[in-house]
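Handout, page 2. Input:
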Amino acid sequence: AFGGMSGNLSGGVTVGNTLSCRRTDVDGMLSVQNADITGDFRLSGGRVCGELIMEGAKFGQNVMLEVDGMRTRVRGGVHMISTHVNGWVVLGGAFLEKSIVLDNATIGGQLSLIYDGDPALGFLAVMTEVGGDVRAESATIGKHAHFLGARIVGSVRLAGAHVGGELALHSTTVGKDIV
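Output:
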């Protein structure tokens, strides 16, 4: 837990396996900018009161913001500009108060904004909510982009993006434009 302070793991830090923040509260920002994480990055059931900054980072596997007894909540934006993720980017039941920006990012697998269930919540399906835009301009998504049961207050912006599989927006609410 980074209670009372910001978590800064940026500037070339290397994590030889998974970076897991389970039920972790960060009173400020959490930054892994330009980090090299060979496994997963997991933020499960925690809270980040500031920005979540992952710009320029490299992830050997997946980036996951998911439910773990409670929703993962990010009060600032999620910045993944020019980030490289070999696996999936999954927002499963997460609540982002501002935008998620994936401009020029490379995702080898799937981009998913989906429902998530948790045994502690009786497998109650919790929708992913984004208080701003989902922006992935000029991004490369190797497989699918799935927005399943998500609520996006702003726009979905995919100008210049390449999605290798299907783009699905099933049971999703988008408050503004899809471009």
